[in-house]
Amino acid sequence: MGNQDIYVGLDIGTTSIKVIVAEFIQGQMNIIGVGSQRSAGLSRGVIVDIDKAVSAIRQAVSQAEEKASIKIDNVVVGIPANMLQIEQVTGMIAVGDASKEITDADVQAVASAALVRNLPPERESLTLTPTEFIVDGFDDIKDPRGMIGVRLEMHGILFTVPKTVLHNTKKALTKAGLAIRAVVVSPLATAQVALSDGEQDFGTVLIDIGGGQSTAAVIHDHKLKFTSVDQEGGEFVTKDISVVLNTGFKDAEKLKRDYGNADSLATREDETFPVTVVGKTEPVMVSEKYLSEIIEARLGQIFKRLNGALQQANALQLPGGIVITGGTTAIPGIVELAQDIFGRDVKRFIPDEMGLRHPAFTQALGLIQYAANLTDIDLLVGSVTTTPTIAPKPAAAAHEPEPDPTAPESEPEPKKPSALRRFFGNFFE
């Protein structure tokens, strides 16, 4: 993996682990290998049994290595948005006399200054992303290196996560013999491929429905502003089918895939199929409408809870609307169900790359795109956190992060001229 134009995306999901190997030639991405393996040792997006997870990761990586005909040494891995906290941070340093040019070390120093805070012992800084630099009062600078100034400021967005989530992921990858090339907050990665440039810029709600959990994220100005995680996903739909129809879990999963529909109005009572029922020698005939009602009930609950969280954040009036993706969104009728509950236009994203035309591959693909699009400044600023971001440079200073006074759940503005302005007031000012 010495070729720096080759990236490996690793999506460690609750129900499956996906590995995608891609090479970039003159800015064009070509998929050269894919691996997919049933997950083990995970619960609701988080690794709970490291050894089982390691075994599944190795098998998925081995599949991708065989297809790509390369040895995979490092990966870009996603971290779920469970208990993710987002806050705006600011750092400032004195560069020196007016004749001194701003260097890489100065950028790292001002980034480290932004991290001087007291973080609770159970949390860890994951990613620091710069939004702008200010040199002697001149703002909206994207790259201050080479400029002359006495004072350098940086405004950025800091993501913090529970230490357990990050540690277990790192430990599993180490035991699997893999180095971490970059760690990415999953919704940010997914947005790279699921949303257009305009949708990321003007503001869009992105909902990723996986096997173990569902995540709603607000992307605006190409940045992650808010997340809400519901601890249910497609696996819970399968469990419902299994319990209600008294059939095995594997049979229930097959029924969901072969006959499932999330919109009961689109199914018929007279269309039936056989179901293997525990304790009976002969299959029982079940209608597609009955199966659809089971699926619709669970997915409806998930959407309603996410809808409530998004309404509290005043996020549903953003111009980009709602985009859904993730493996569970492969169920027919799910777009219609989402539209009914959210009361907004909803579209589903499915990758169009050959061999990846299933919404379950969106995140793994996004991890590659995100890592490939990181700039030198992103890498410099990201290198001051404890989590590596693509060949990190030495940090200029240690840091002590602090609690999150402006997390997404912060108090809304007292005045509310409009829902859109209230949302901006909550998260963008």
Automatic annotation (TrEMBL):
<comment type="subunit">
    <text>Self-interacts. Interacts with FtsZ.</text>
</comment>
<comment type="similarity">
    <text>Belongs to the heat shock protein 70 family.</text>
</comment>
<dbReference type="InterPro" id="IPR018181">
    <property type="entry name" value="Heat_shock_70_CS"/>
</dbReference>
<dbReference type="Pfam" id="PF02491">
    <property type="entry name" value="SHS2_FTSA"/>
</dbReference>
<dbReference type="Pfam" id="PF14450">
    <property type="entry name" value="FtsA"/>
</dbReference>
<feature type="domain" description="SHS2">
    <location>
        <begin position="7"/>
        <end position="194"/>
    </location>
</feature>
<keyword id="KW-0132">Cell division</keyword>
<protein>
    <recommendedName>
        <fullName>Cell division protein FtsA</fullName>
    </recommendedName>
</protein>
<dbReference type="InterPro" id="IPR020823">
    <property type="entry name" value="Cell_div_FtsA"/>
</dbReference>
<keyword id="KW-1003">Cell membrane</keyword>
<keyword id="KW-0472">Membrane</keyword>
<dbReference type="GO" id="GO:0051301">
    <property type="term" value="P:cell division"/>
</dbReference>
<comment type="function">
    <text>Cell division protein that is involved in the assembly of the Z ring. May serve as a membrane anchor for the Z ring.</text>
</comment>
<keyword id="KW-0131">Cell cycle</keyword>
<dbReference type="InterPro" id="IPR050696">
    <property type="entry name" value="FtsA/MreB"/>
</dbReference>
<dbReference type="InterPro" id="IPR043129">
    <property type="entry name" value="ATPase_NBD"/>
</dbReference>
<dbReference type="InterPro" id="IPR003494">
    <property type="entry name" value="SHS2_FtsA"/>
</dbReference>
<comment type="similarity">
    <text>Belongs to the FtsA/MreB family.</text>
</comment>
<keyword id="KW-0346">Stress response</keyword>
<feature type="region of interest" description="Disordered">
    <location>
        <begin position="391"/>
        <end position="419"/>
    </location>
</feature>
